[in-house]
Amino acid sequence: MEFDFAEEQPKFLMLMYGLIAFVAVVGGLLLLLDVVPAWFTRRREARLVAASASGAPLPRRRKQREGTVALFFLLPALLLLTIGLVIPAIRTTLLSFMDSGSTHWVGLRNYGWLFSENFVVRVLINSLIWVLLVPLVATAFGLIYAVLVDKARFEAVAKSLIFLPMAISFVGASIIWKFVYAYRGDDQEQIGLLNQIVVSLGGEPKQWLLESPLNTLLLIVIMIWIQAGFAMVVLSAAIKAIPADIVEAARLDGVSPWQMFWRITMPSIRPALIVVVVTLSIATLKVFDIVRTATNGNYDTSVIANEMYNQAFRYGENGQGSALAVFLFVLVIPIVIYQIRNLRQQREG
Amino acid sequence: MTTATPTIAAGTQQTDGPKSVAGRVRKRLNSRTATLVSIIIALVWTVPTFGLFISSFRPEDQIKTTGWWTFFTNPQFTMENYQEVLFGRSSSSGQLASYFINSLAITIPSVLFPLAFAALAAYALAWINFRGRDWLYIAIFALQIVPLQMALVPLLKFFSTGVTVAGVQVLPAWDLVDEQKFAQVWFAHTCFALPFAVFLLHNFISQLPGDLMEAARVDGASHPKIFRTIVLPLITPALAAFGIFQFLWVWNDLLVALIFAGGGDETAPLTVRLAEMAGTRGNEWQRLTAGAFVSIVVPLIVFLSLQRFFVRGLLAGSVKG
Q: The CATH number of the domain where B168 resides is what?
């Protein structure tokens, strides 16, 4: 089957339909908003003229019209959010109390399953390891690097290097690291960088991704590798926002770089630090692509999001999949509450 | 991202001059370690990608038997892998050209729709007075925390069987086939992107000067007119920021595509195909390396050329909160 450009044409046609739909919807909406109120205005003006001519009290309807205009501005977003997010989220919650075919209520059985099956417990533990390690280590690397390259020569280039993995898909990153972890028998030449290093240090090559619990840690490395750039950029901006006179005053007092870091830098960037850790925690809880690409959740590496996908879309266990999704949601809530409280404290303080 | 000018950096270094010899030694050691550590970090962050990149140009037998670092002592260069992975004839070769087009067809509308809808909504939430405005904003803001996993099963059902209320079919099933399934993916991505998009754009739009809006209102400009002629031009950087954000997100997404696009070469994007190849042909490195780069190159170009906007958006979205 030679690659045939003609066969791809329906896709471009579909893309064109999509773009036409876009122009029609957005353009139509703006046009509607332009034309209809203008019509109303004209009518109201006519009524005003009539009212003033007959001496009747002048009608005032301005406020109500604002509401209608707002409704039209908000309509597409609200409609999509309701259909695509709010109703499905509620339905998922309901489904989590039903059986696999979503026909009978089973009470809390799916949640019982969550905490009793050994392999699910393993999944939960893995997720816990992920969410403990990724935010902390990624933030630490990002912070160290941001401090080290701050005001260094080639700062912009140095930062881009760390930041670049943010542009790479989780799938791509997983393949990159799978290649680093690649294994060949110990009588052969290694093609994976990690095994090559191990061998050149006199060790035995290993099948890294098959050994639990090491493999989970190696998958976590991928996530850290992707996310450290995010931490670095946000923290670097926070460091640069520290008022220069504070830094200068500390310098004049003869503060060592170490003290400077702990007494000046850290307290000043605390809000940014919290934001980074929280954002990374939430992203980590939902991690799916890495596990699926690198190991497909085998060898004890599965996490909640991956298991949710398997249950709901591979095994047709809608109830159990939904229970996992709800559990994921419940785990996110305390993190968000923590952040909101922090933000409020900042605004007051 | 602001970078200090060299003169300032030099000036601060001078005032920082340590007084004792021991202090000077320690400082040099410190900066040595600092440089070393930063170089090591930079290496760990670049070498894996670099190794994959080199490998993608090596002949198959070379990739599979020797490490990519031997390329420097024994350079052999080929474009075979890319040719094979993009346009290859056999079903195992990848046929990534087809998936590449799918990625494009999925990504472009999935960026445009949320961008436009969120801009409209953000404007209304920021500058039109109506009852319950703040509550509505908080509600949309709060939706950000709902993991998209919460929506997957019912949304898929919505597409495949439509909506029935008490046995009455209210909305029909979408019943899409082949490339029509793009519409499902656009729909899903648009829904999932909206909370963050509204939040990010609202951050920008609400900070536009109120006098400007007031003046326009006094001049008799309607809201749509203000939106088109005043707000849109002013928030272009924010639109760019979100656009890049959403582009990277959609192009790199696996989960949504996996569920709503199906796995065939009619609709599935690059990520789905690559993940599949990594699973079933995990040792065909000549295809995986080249394939990974095919998928990386577009976001990389977008990212590098528009990094400024992306960083600004990132900071606005995460720090100002």
A: 1.10.3720.10
Is B76 in the same domain as B109? Answer: no
**DSSP letter (8 states) at residue B163:** E
Whether B255 and A176 lie within 8 Å, measured CB to CB:
no
B311, part of any domain = yes
Task: Give CA angle at B107 (B105, B108), nearest 5°.
Answer: 75
Scanning chain A, the segments in alpha helix (DSSP H) are 9-54, 62-81, 87-95, 109-116, 118-149, 155-163, 170-180, 193-200, 214-240, 244-252, 257-259, 266-285, 289-294, 304-309, 318-348
Structure tokens at B164: 């029935």
Decide: A223 and A290 in contact? Cβ < 8 Å.
yes
Q: Is residue B90 part of a domain?
A: no
| d(C-alpha A323, C-alpha B105), whole Å | 33
Query: What is the DSSP-derived secondary structure letter of residue A56?
Result: P
Last residue of a domain, one of B56, B84, B112: B84
CATH architecture classification, A110-348: Orthogonal Bundle (1.10)
pTM of the model: 0.85
CA atoms of A145 and B198, how far apart (whole Å): 32
Q: What is the pLDDT along chain B (321 residues), one digit of tens a residue?
A: 444 333 333 334 444 444 556 656 556 556 778 888 888 999 999 999 998 888 888 888 888 888 788 888 878 888 888 888 888 766 666 688 888 888 999 999 999 999 999 999 999 999 888 888 888 988 888 888 888 888 988 888 888 887 777 666 777 777 777 778 888 899 999 999 999 899 889 888 888 888 888 888 888 888 888 888 888 888 888 898 889 889 989 999 999 999 988 777 788 898 998 888 887 766 788 888 888 888 898 998 888 888 888 777 777 665 443
**Closest residue of chain A to B16, computed from CA coordinates:** A251
The C-alpha of B76 sits at a distance from chain A's nearest C-alpha, in angstroms, of 16
Cβ burial A214-237 (10 Å sphere, 16+ → b, else e): ebbebbbbbbbbbbbbbbbbbbbb
Q: Which of A81, A269, A337 to mutate to test the interface with B (most CBs of B within 10 A)?
A: A81
Q: Please tell me whether residues B299 and B227 are part of one structural domain.
A: yes
Residues B210, B104 share a domain: yes
Contact A269, B315 (CB under 8 A): no
Which of B113, B266, B300 lies closest to A167 in CB terms?
A: B300
Are B243 and B128 contained in the same domain? yes
**How far does B128 lie from chain A, in Å, by closest CA?**
6
Helix, strand, or coil (residue B169): strand
Of B84, B106, B130, which residue constitutes the final position of a domain? B84
Residue B167 is part of which domain span? 96-320
The interface predicted TM-score of the complex, written ipTM, equals 0.84
Question: Is-contact B198 B122, C-beta < 8 A?
Answer: yes
